[in-house]
Amino acid sequence: MAIWNLGSINVDVVYSVPHIPAPGETLASTGRDTFLGGKGANMSVAAARAAARINHIGAVGADGRWTVERLLEYGVDTRYITEVDAETAQAIIMVDPQGENAIVLHPSANHQIPLATLEGALSEAQKGDWLVFQNETNLQQVAARIGRKMGLRVAYAAAPFSAEAVQRVLENLDFLILNKVEAEQLRAATGKVPQDLGVADVIVTLGGAGAKWFGAKGEVYIPAIPVTPVDTTGAGDTFTGYVLAGLDRGLPMEQALALASKAGALMVTRHGTADVIPDLAEVQAFRS
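Request: output the structure for the sequence above.
Response:
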């Protein structure tokens, strides 16, 4: 089978800072790096490194051609990444010594993905394939409707979070992943807990405390793997990419989640985003 990812592609500019700045505060950084990033690109790289066949649907400007080349190098099918008349999206990321971050997004090309690109990509999808999307692009509702109509398994990583955006696609979802704070915000907006959303599989990540799966077996807890984090950027995307890759390869949900937990734990011990996502061999060999 295959995964089709309607996903963002960012140039991530990462600054190491002594602490996350307060309003009005000016800080000198202690380091600066540039990485391939974006929640979509991170998930595509994670899925590719987890041995899935992954097709990325997205857009960049002429300044971002190198990001497409990098995705291709990492094993992502890039045929449906379109070059548009806009600059490539950018993320300014500040990371403190404890690994916590603050991020500013400039979406640009991520919000200009042509409908024809999405339709052309999904015309090649097969029933049973996965379609995943996040909140960093346009065309989310259209993609969800097309995916449902085609018999694809539709997955949604609800970040950056918007309760309204989730509710617009909820009826077409098979898989929803969000963190604990987002789950509470969605409950406040809908009055429903995860198991009552009408979605077959809902994953609530708990950061360093693990994750919960609400699905066929009720509520199942997946413990975290204890590590000392240095940078949490991209860890959730890595987790999601690995879960979907595992499911696409036929793993039971609990095994896919356990593998994803190891990948996420390994990821937070590294500085960077898509460029440092661990491959399957590293994850399988990893011991905390």
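The chain has a mean pLDDT of 94.
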